[in-house]
Amino acid sequence: MYRLEALLDKRDDAGLQFIMHRVDALWTQNMSTTIPRKPPTKEELAMTQAIFFHAGCPVCVSAEQQFAGALDPARYQVDIVHLGEDASRVDEAEALGVQSVPALVIDGQVFHINFGAPLSALR
After folding, report:
1. Is the pTM above the cut of 0.70?
2. Number of domains comprising the chain
């Protein structure tokens, strides 16, 4: 079996060409036997959930307009939650990892935007 390091040290061009030919042949063989990708399922095509938590303060309202409004409605289902008006969802925000508002949660990942108020102030 050829060792690539030995071929490089000896500048064995013929050996390197042989290895590259084998790699290319194996690649072509494997690519021709791969199973074609099936069409995506309805679940795969489903829109991504995004939740924008805010408290209604000027920082939050500005962030809502800039960030939540910028998400592509064809790709993201955006739920805007005003925690000042719906305090029952503070526990949900906390469970998702939100520490302050405004915050945007996309697929379970929290993005804290600027700083309007800590979540503890909304209880």
Report:
1. no
2. 2
